Request: fold
Amino acid sequence: MRRRTILALLAFSIFTLAAAPSGAQDSKPGIVRLRLAELHPADHPTAKADYEFARIVRERSQGRIQISVYTDSVLGQELEVLEQLKFGAIDIARVSLAAVSTYAPRLDALQMPYLYRDEDHMWKVLKGEIGKELLASVGAKGTGFVGLGWFEAGSRSFYDSRRPLRKPSDLAGLRIRVQEGGVMDELVQAYGASALPMAFGESYAAILRGEVDGAENNYSTYYSSGHYQVAKYYTLTEHVRIPEIIVGSALSFSELPAADRELIARSAMDSIDYQRSAWRDYEEKAAVKLRAAGVSIEYPADPAAWRAFVAPIYAAQDAPTRALVARIRALK
Ligand code: BDP
Reply:
């Protein structure tokens, strides 16, 4: 409650400072200052790539467009950040695609469990026609957003505080934190567990207090968030790849000339390779640190048993989502 009040005040004060388009009210004429919200700490590969994105933008604009990166959720949790993007209090956010899918439902297709053959397949989708169409759907009239680019987020797996999850029925009866927005609740329920949607920043305490038994996330975030300290059984179910997305505020962007909007969007796409390589490095380091911390990391003995639950989730999607899934699957 108290935290929310502080956040609301913070949002308000930022709003009053930034009600005018960020650049236009800068004291130095011609300088455009933009704020980017990031949930992760500064050494997380995704946050590092935010800085790289800001560097590229600054370099290409010869110092004219300056993006300040705010890490560690200081500007709010993801859904709060998206609300602030709508009225231009925040100009850019790096968030999980699941959060944005609340506003751009076509993104549901990218959250289907066991969708891709592998990481390269996902990147073929994101960097190709489908990725372009989906970024456009994020920027459709009325959403309040502009879709700028994608980042890697590995694959997500389940972890819990009770026991290794050796087979799907080990999840039965557990309470699992899921992202707010997105379709992961359907999968968790299919495995017989209860899905508790919750802001990411609240999940560590919720596991610690025993309000939930576990959660699901990628290796890097499981490590960087310290969740491994309170839920030490990590089972590599690798049930979904949910990429990160970089979104702009349609309001802030409407104040920029088209050339600047293009420069920023191109720079977001051009920071992907840096981010993917930072991601790989960090994942390797996280794996070593997790093992050293005594975390139990197991591959399921029978991966097919986990996959056997997902068909009804695909079948429950609307026709446009199912059509997109078919195109994704057909992409070689
Ligand atoms: C992490 C994403 C972050 C999400 C978080 C979550 O990087 O954007 O908010 O998962 O589970 O992997 O909410």
Summary: Residues 39, 46, 78, 95-96, 153, 179, 200, 217-218, 221, 244 surround beta-D-glucopyranuronic acid (CB under 6 Å).
